[in-house]
Amino acid sequence: MHKLFILCCFVILALLSLVRASSGILKPTNGTVWYAGSQVTVAIDLSDLDATNTASIFFEEFRSIGLAEGPIGDGTFTFTIPKDIPGFEKDEVVLLLVVIRKEKYLWKVYGVNIDLHKESVPLSKRSRRPRAIEELNSLEWLIDV
Description:
disordered C terminus, 3 helices, alpha+beta
């Protein structure tokens, strides 16, 4: 019984650390839509970081492609998502990872789910739902002068 209690405590602490770890990314939030080829910004919570920290940003699914890397600075990293990511064939949800190093040693890892799309569809090419005659008729009272 004692071992079960210790195991439960360990699991609870592990889950709490995951929740805390994911809160280190201020922007983007879970479910944000990004398009290959677009410029994006990642903002990191600086509350427990200092100038000696560095960050590496990449998608977990495409680890060979680094998106941004360098000193923490003001906590923001702006970069362009590559258009041709090897293995990225269709729109999918990917895990964006921010790896924080303190004096060159791994210190923290933050993650957020991104809805990554192959390309953005221009507004002019998006399908538009034609308005129904009933909708137009219901608005006639607005036109009466």
